[in-house]
Amino acid sequence: MQVPPAHSAIKKDGKPVYLAARKGLEVKLEPRPVTIHSFVIEKIELPVVYFRVVCSTGTYIRSLANDFGAALGVGGYMSSLRRTRIGTFEVTDADDLVSFEKTIDALKAGSSEG
């Protein structure tokens, strides 16, 4: 179970809770079930710990980092995040920026011919 952060886009009474949180209002969210399929510590360079996680939709990774630090009794926060996969889409299959721009240019050139 994971409690979503107060600055999340979850809606309560039809409005995103981050709107209330930004106004300084107290936001209370109920814990939600999440699944952590794997959690692997890849490198430790104290105070930085690098990890890779495979998780279910709806998991807040920044909250997971905070929970991880709390479990160690030292606190924790996320300093960087990189999504490497969502569903069947993997970052290794993505075009780099140069290839993407060439694809867009080719599509533009093709549409102007007709």
Protein model, in words:
It is extended and about 60 Å long. By secondary structure, the chain is an alpha+beta fold. The strands form three sheets. A two-stranded antiparallel ribbon has the order 1-2. Helix content is 31%, strand content 23%. The protein has three helices and six strands, in the order ββαββαββα. It folds into two domains: 1-33, no CATH class; 34-113, Alpha-Beta Plaits (2-Layer Sandwich). It has helices at residues 17-22, 61-72, 97-113, and strands spanning 11-12, 15-16, 36-45, 48-55, 85-86, 89-90. The mean pLDDT is 91. The N and C termini lie far apart (55 Å).
Short structural summary:
This protein has three helices and six strands, in the order E-E-H-E-E-H-E-E-H. By secondary structure, it is of the alpha+beta class.
Shape estimate: extended
CATH class label of the largest domain:
Alpha Beta
Distance between the termini: 55 Å
| Count of folded domains | 2
Q: How are strands sequenced across the largest beta sheet?
A: 1-2
Percentage of residues in DSSP E strands = 15-25%
Beta-strand segment tally: 6
Structural class: alpha+beta
Mean pLDDT over the full residue set: 91
Topology pattern, helix = H, strand = E: EEHEEHEEH
Q: Segments where pLDDT lies below 50 for 5+ residues? A: none
Assembly type of the chains comes to single chain
Q: State the share of residues found in helices, binned by percent.
A: 25-40%
> Tally the helices: what do you get?
3
* Largest sheet: number of strands, sense, barrel closure: 2 strands, antiparallel
Return the CATH architecture of the largest domain: 2-Layer Sandwich
Q: What is the CATH topology descriptor of the largest domain?
A: Alpha-Beta Plaits
